[in-house]
Design a protein that fits this description.
The complex is a heterodimer. By secondary structure, chain A is α/β, with parallel strands linked by helices. Chain A has ten helices and ten strands. Chain A is 37% helix and 25% strand. In chain A, the strands form two sheets. Chain A has a six-stranded mixed β-sheet, with helices on both faces. In chain A, helix 3 runs parallel beside helix 6. The longest helix of chain A is centred in the last third of the chain and has 16 residues. In chain B, helix 5 crosses helix 7. Chain B folds into three domains: 183 residues, no CATH class; 79 residues; 255 residues, no CATH class. The two termini of chain B are 37 Å apart. Chain B is built from 29 helices and no strands. The longest helix of chain B is centred in the N-terminal third of the chain and has 32 residues. Chain B is mainly α. The chains are: A alpha/beta, B mainly alpha. Chains A and B meet through helix 2, helix 3, helix 6 and helix 7 of A and helix 21, helix 22, helix 27 and helix 28 of B.
Chain lengths: 252, 639
């Protein structure tokens, strides 16, 4: 449903992504692992349009909008939408929703307003309140803190809020950037549990993680990123078993 | 820290008296006239308040870790759910509170007795014809006369009524008591987080709750309104500065009304208080004289400016230092449409459009949309080039824009008549009635302008408040927090920013038009950088993002300097000192918005989850039930 075709991204003169190609199919959890500075966050920011890609193409497959399966899964087609040519706010409106690295919730808006910002591009009041219910089912904690400013939440709650906010746009694909960053181990477990739950409800997820082990355990497939290049890819189980990956990223 | 003792209290009283005596010697009361006494009492109260806050022992807070609230500026003190009692008892936990109160009382009585004694001594000395030391001869009698509310001539001829001296004692005692109350309220950590909430909770705890609340809310306003109309009993002779004193009380009454709205419970009670305040303020133009009306008119023109700038700066977070440009555009647009001066450009344009030029071209109300529209276009024109700029760079560019517009007005002689300005701008009429029909009888001409300013700023305030809670308002706040994330949630940054500039400019255009008709003649110098700075300062002083705070800021920044005209050359110094004190006492502004309060004190003591507790909370997350919230703690309180 999401296809990146040799995408190049620059920060000024710095060549950050050197031709990334990857595919995310409907209903999958795909994880992108790699060390610091490998370009994981850059990849997500390029997809969501916050950073413009200088070369290459990003496709959102045509049926992704209507929710049906794409006619040519995994293969770009002329009728697909070129995300790399759209500004960020239009990408968001097409159903690509990002939960950014470091949470980045709106600290001075209340929890409720943060969630409302997630649904900013939507006008269907009924659908929004349905999704709000769903977010509260996933994160009962948020309902308790509804009128509290986002900045006063704890780190774990902020992460929940960031994911909740991303879900509020009723996305076709959810981009999660380091959801476990800076959290206590028990919370990491909980967050990953919830990610799996969201996926079980049919959400397609592209997950960027430093915690490679946890990410590979819940993912269907994985890509290993190194200094802007994809060096390895395959089924998550195979990657977990791969000695190279184990040595470099799993700390075994 | 000094322990509180009777000696300490008396010492405080003596220091206050020495300070006030110094003010009397340099002639401040003489310049203030009959209002000297309440003003000096206010100065004393401020002094006591500062002393008590730093001297008094820690009140309450038993069992709370650390003195993290100590020395912290602002009012963000208190963890909820720690109530140890009800009603007055809750405000004064332990003996600390009563001690502070007694301390304040004693200091106040000391000062009052000394002041009364001093003025009695001087009055009797002058009354009996005793000559005082030649150097002091010129100033001291005037000052003492002002203190006891009579002119020097009266002292010689008439006896000063005896009750003036107890009145002086009473004034300073009350000042000490108020200061102590405020100091205790600020220190009590066991109630609500803000002083407003604490006061409101206190009112809640009284018997006959509803009556008490209404009385507590309405009394200050009624009292002040009464003073405005009738004067202070016993100090009824306002002296030569009666006009400015009435103005001062008008400002305070309006401001206290706004506080009352904040104090009331949201919902019906708040609506009733707001309605009462609106009625009170709407009668002002009919009561005040020409001078007071003209000041109040200016104040409310700046309320509109502040509310508009607040959209750009407070809501959208774009620092605009050239806001005067839109004010000028609004003013000049109306001037072109309503003044006899006609520039060749405009008459050519009219000929082109086939309209025969007649004067005035448009009335006030028909010109209003035109002025708003041109200002909005100006806002968009400024917005487009600065879209990519943030922070300091944005401030510099907007600063330049403001100057460009002013220089245009100054140098485009054929279009704007240059430095000679545009004269004889017409006044607003209504329903085809000429302006003159409003400025006769009950309503003075400035009163009419004040009334128009009131209604216009009410409209602007309504729009601003609705915007605050709207989808667009949320988009602005989100953009202010983080542009990238806001864009990634679907906010169209360009459109959202330009809307902020355009709506802000529209309000300034409205204000500018009213300003032009208030001034009748406008010149480019009316639109200097200082107008922008005033508008920005008033929203910072009032509390960025909070409409009620902005009205208070305008009252303080545009109203107070006029009141202080009584102190002549000390005016700006006094005003500056007041501003500095205000920003120390309330760093987030007089009435900060809820959102701003969060930013000003980011982590500690904010609600149940503090930075320190964060880790434990996280660890025990699955097992923990819902935490006690401030609302819960509060609702249990009156039970």
């Amino acid at each position: 449903m999401l296809i990146l075709d040799s995408v190049h991204t620059y920060y000024g003169h710095i060549h950050a992504l050197k031709g990334i190609s990857l595919t995310v199919n409907q209903g999958e959890i795909v994880t992108l692992i790699g060390s610091n500075g490998a370009g994981k966050t850059t990849t997500l920011n390029t997809i969501s349009g916050v950073l413009p890609a200088r070369a290459g193409a990003i496709y959102l497959q045509e049926n992704a909008r209507s929710g049906g399966p794409p006619a040519h899964p995994g293969r770009a087609n002329d009728s697909d939408i070129r995300l790399d040519q759209l500004p960020a706010h239009q990408v968001a409106r097409l159903g690509v929703s990002q939960s950014p690295e470091g949470r980045k919730i709106f600290a001075r808006l209340s929890v409720q307003e943060n969630l409302a910002m997630g649904a900013f591009a939507r006008a269907d009041a009924d659908g929004i309140s349905q999704d709000l219910e769903r977010v509260f089912q996933l994160f009962p904690r948020l309902q308790e803190r509804l009128s509290q400013p986002g900045g006063t939440l704890s780190g774990g709650e902020q992460q929940m809020l960031a994911i909740g906010r991303a879900l509020m746009s009723r996305p076709r694909i959810l981009l999660l950037d380091e959801p476990s960053m800076g959290l206590a181990p028990i919370l990491v477990q909980q967050i990953f549990q919830i990610i799996r739950e969201i996926n079980a409800q049919g959400m397609t997820i592209l997950l960027v993680e430093q915690n490679a082990q946890a990410a590979l355990h819940i993912a269907n497939r994985g890509y290993v990123l190194e200094t802007g290049n994809i060096v390895l890819s395959g089924d998550a189980q195979d990657l977990l078993a791969d000695p190279q990956v184990a040595e470099a990223y799993l700390g075994i | 820290m000094t322990p509180v003792s009777a000696n300490g209290a008396i010492r405080n009283g003596l220091i206050a008296f020495a300070f006030l005596g110094y003010l009397i010697l340099i002639g401040i009361p003489g310049r203030l006239g009959g209002s000297a006494l309440p003003v000096l009492a206010l100065v004393a109260a401020l002094f006591f308040w500062v002393k008590l806050r730093f001297d008094a022992p820690d009140t309450g807070g038993a069992g709370l870790p650390g003195g993290s609230a100590e020395g912290k500026p602002g009012w963000q003190i208190g963890a909820p759910g720690q109530s140890s009692g009800r009603g007055v008892g809750a405000l004064f936990p332990g003996r600390g509170g009563t001690l502070v109160l007694r301390h304040g009382l004693l200091a106040g009585v000391t000062t009052g007795l000394l002041i009364a004694g001093m003025s009695l001594a001087f009055a009797s000395a002058i009354g009996s014809g005793a000559s005082i030391q030649p150097v002091l001869d010129k100033i001291v009698p005037v000052n003492v006369g002002a203190l006891i509310g009579v002119s020097p001539g009266q002292i010689a001829n008439d006896d000063v009524p005896l009750f003036r001296y107890p009145l002086q004692v009473l004034f300073f005692t009350v000042a000490g008591l108020f200061a102590a109350l405020a100091a205790v309220a600020a220190r009590a950590r066991n109630l609500q987080t803000t002083s407003m909430a604490r006061l409101s909770a206190y009112l809640d705890s009284l018997p006959f709750r509803t009556t008490a609340r209404f009385a507590g809310i309405a009394l200050p306003f009624l009292l002040l309104a009464y003073i405005v109309w009738l004067g202070i009993p016993g100090v009824s002779a306002f002296g030569s500065n009666e006009g400015t004193v009435r103005l001062l009380f008008t400002l305070i009454a309006t401001g206290s009304g706004l506080f009352a709205i904040r104090l009331a419970h949201p919902g019906r009670e708040q609506k009733i208080v707001a309605l009462l305040l609106a009625l009170g303020v709407l009668t002002m133009p009919f009561i005040l004289d020409q001078f007071q009306n003209s000041v109040m008119g200016l104040v409310f023109i700046f309320v509109m400016m502040g509310l508009g700038l607040n959209i750009v700066v407070g809501y959208a977070g774009l620092l605009d230092l050239g806001y005067v440009a839109f004010f000028a555009i609004g003013a000049y647009t109306y001037a072109f449409l309503s003044a006899p001066f006609s520039s060749p450009y405009i008459s050519n344009l009219l000929n082109l459009l086939g309209i025969s030029p007649e004067i005035p071209l448009l009335g006030y109300w028909t010109a209003l949309p035109v002025a708003m529209l041109t200002a909005a276009i100006g806002g968009i024109l400024l917005g487009i080039p600065v879209l990519r700029l943030r922070g300091d760079y944005l401030a510099i560019v907007t600063l330049g824009f403001g100057e460009i517009i002013r220089l245009f007005m100054l140098n485009l002689g054929e279009l704007t008549n240059g430095p000679r300005g545009i004269l004889e701008i017409s006044q607003p009429g209504l329903f085809g009635l000429p302006p003159q029909s409003f400025s006769s009888g009950l309503l003075s001409s400035q009163g009419w302008i004040f009334l128009v300013a009131l209604v216009s700023s009410a409209v602007v305030a309504f729009v601003a408040i609705r915007l605050n809670d709207s989808r667009l308002g949320r988009a602005w706040f989100a953009m202010q927090e983080d542009e990238d994330v806001a864009e990634a949630t679907g906010v169209h940054l360009v459109r959202t920013k330009l809307l902020a500039f355009a709506i802000g400019a529209t309000f300034a255009g409205m204000a500018g038009q009213l300003y032009a008709s208030r001034q009748i003649n406008i010149f480019p110098e009316n639109f200097s950088l200082f107008v922008s700075i005033d508008a920005l300062a008033l929203i910072i002083v009032g509390g960025i993002g909070s409409p009620a705070g902005i009205v208070l800021g305008a009252l303080a920044l545009k109203g107070l300097p006029e009141v202080l005209r009584g102190v002549d050359e000390y005016r700006i110094v006094t005003f500056a000192a007041l501003l500095v004190i205000m920003m120390i006492v309330r760093p987030a502004g007089i009435l900060p918005s809820a959102r701003r309060r969060v930013q000003v004190s980011p982590t500690d003591e904010q609600g149940p989850t503090t930075a320190a507790e964060e880790r434990e909370n996280d660890a025990s997350l699955p097992a923990q039930g819902p935490p006690a919230r401030p609302e819960d703690a509060r609702s249990e309180e009156p039970a």
